[in-house]
Amino acid sequence: MRLQGMCGKRESGSQGQVAFQCQLLQSSLGRPSSPQLPWLRDELMSLQDAPGGLFQMLPGDPFPEQVTVVWLSVLALAFSLVCEPQETLSLAEMTLRRLAPRLLLSLRLLGPGIDILLCPDATDGLLDHLLPHGHMLFLNEHFLQAMDRELGIKASR
Amino acid sequence: MFTAAAESFLRQARESREEELRRFAARVSALLQGPEAGAEAVDGLQRLHLTVAATKYPRQLNGKFVELLQTVLCSPKSPEQIQVLCAAILREMSPCNELILSCDEIQDTKLLSLVSSVLLAQEDKGEVAAVGQRVVKALEKRLPEGQSARFLLPVLANVISLSPASLTEEQTNVVSKKLADWLRYASIQQGMAQPSGGFFSSPRTKQPAPITEVDGAVATDFFTVLSVAQHYTQDQWLNVQAFSMLRNWLLCYGGKELNTLHPGDKAGVDRAVTSVVSTAGPRERLRDKAFEYCQRLMEQSTRRPLKKDDGDLQKACLIEAVTIMDIICKQDSSYVCRAVSSLQMLHSRICGDATYARALLPIAQFFLNHSKLAAVDSDAIYKHLFTDIPAQLFHNPSLAFEFVQFCKDNSQLFTDSSSIFRQSFPNLFKFLAWNSPPLISEFVDLLPFLLDPGTAIEIFHLLLDLPCLTAALDIQLRAAALPASERARADPAGKPGTCLEAFRHPLYKGLFQHLLRTTAAPQDAPESLVPLRLLLGSLAGSPRVVQCAETVPVLLELFFRVVAEFADGSLINQLVVLLLQRSDQLYEIPAFKEDVYRVLGSQLAVLCGLRPALLVELSSEILEFSGAVSNLQSKEPIFTHMVWAVGEYLSVSCDKRCTVEQISRFFESLEAVLFEITQLRPQACTPGCAPRAISVLMATLTKLAARSQDLIPRVSMFLSKMRTFVQSPAVTSVYCEEDLEEILIRATELMNLLKMPSVAQFVFTPPVASTRLQREANDSLPVALRMVTELLEPAPGSVPV
Q: Can you tell me the ipTM of this complex?
């Protein structure tokens, strides 16, 4: 289980695949590929309608085993989770939909800053809670709120 | 947007030189060793991390500095942020030679988790084992006040996925016992909020409230991941962690215990596990608690959640619960009966609810694995899964992906040609038609399992009509979305104005139904889908249809490759006839048609090579096809390969039934075509035919003449006229110089060859090649032609024979 950031060494190959799949999905839905206006914070916390998908990568490059990639596109950014064969994909999709907005908010990814590059501690903190040691958690909404409180994230519901 | 600034910053980090890096590291080192490691140290560490992470090759940092990072990481005085950054840098540099880290002395569980993340990144089984030992030791004892085991379970989960052999049996028993307790006996009362304020604002101690279910009702049974509280206790967190890692744990360590036989037990007797026997081993006990937990989750998933997102979790939990039950039953078959009844009830509850469709897959998998043992008939479950689900939910990309994975994981099911699985292939293709890009590679793996003599023809049609299917599915969705009042009332007398109207119109209804069928129907093919294809022409440009069309050539090539392995003469003949027929009946997308023609053309040549006798057996169909100039103009690749095959295989040596009359008939027909396309018309705008077609026609006519020698004068005369043809102004404006030269050279070579009829016959009628050597000899025809030409018209200065 790996979350791919911009600097991942082995992960850049699969990020290329994600961009490709995202483009194809957007085009099949007839949507423009340019990003829309920044969303409101509330809308951001629940990304039900954000385009996303699943695809498989064969063993070889860049991962030695066969993996399934779960991806999500938010504005001009793509997030992906690389799953091993026996991991539950519906949980991976949920986890990604929860991680993405929290990363966007904590790292201020929508602004002009470069926080994602210079705040590995913030990223690690989030990942440590939602994906500790790369393992997914079955968290209901109340657990998630409790976690947000621990992280100091104020998410209005 | 941030990208431009980030890009340049990243580039700077990548391009920073070793000397700069060394100096910067020295500065950070000084800051870290100073009295207060503050914001400047944080900033420095962050930049260092970026520099190390930004390059694909490993960056060297001073050994002493790396040692310092480790010291700072482990020091209890270091602020948390600094510790996290040190760990991040160390991980980024892994595997690391200068590691002195050890987790043995660390008592704080959060720090232990952080240090473990570095150790586990070293790709060293010894380190993994050491971490595993330390974590189990910490879990065994009662943790000091304020410490939580919550941070240790994910470390353990990582240890077992990296190296399951790290733990001894005794240790796995210890952990299994704890997991069972955490799963079954977590507190059923809510935790307390952390007190804020101070002495004066401490609230009156309230009684802790009980936990609730996701629908708000007070909890009826033990705590699970679907239990709700405002604040959670430590053991409730552990309950969540334990369930989250349960599947992997059972897969690694859930097998039968070695010493569970009690005196009096007969070997092989199933024991009905209705109560926990106090002498049950830890694994057995964990299985028992895990099973109970899964049953509880199944009950909890029936409740209507107050928060919408909890509904998603209910479904994920259901999938996980069924999968874990499957694993438990594989490890201990005494659970099968109980599981079967729970799952049958679950199935009848959710099978009508589209939002639970993904959970039907692990349920079906369970029955595939265990129904024989339980003597249960689960055909209805498979039938519902394969007949109803793809038809209703093809547009759900996650379901589509998982469904196709399910098919691939159970590919042996498709070998039985009468089974519901194999018969549902029209339904399966709906997933591909709608979600082409992510599923094409999955279907490349799946298609061979669907093909056999009984399905080949139907699948051939289906592949050629795949983009049509996409369009039809689009119409189906839109028609279903219309409110009842707006549903087009079909006027049987009139013609429908739009595709939507046509969907229910008597003229088209049957055609739509055939295209959208759920099971194989080889006998029920309607007369022709041509009217439907024409109708759906308006959707040919839609992006989804175009994406689907792009997958067809790849699948077609695979189709022919697989079919060639088992097809008998009758099937090959059928395919050739259909190939020629269908070439006129394709969905009107220009790029799609071109690609399909290319594949069909080359595969036609392969089929003829596999069974040369078909040239004689299907001579009337082939004659009709190759005699029409319109076929050359609209389907050049197919036409050219057909003509080539006639030249190669229409001979007595390939089939004794080949008569002189047949050769003559083909000759006359092809001669007429060649004549037609090489006529010099006064109109300036004659469309040019592919030069390749002209070459192949000339070669084929020559070959046929070599086999029926009184045709030789006719061909020779024709070939001699080619010089005039290529030199005429009307032609030089249409073709390029190289092509014309090639045509002329080829015509000359062929003419020369015909001057030596017996040589020509030998060259053009090789024995049917059955070995690779013979086939290679045949492929060297152009070389042979050149050699003969040189013999007849030696270039000045060439070596005499």
A: 0.88
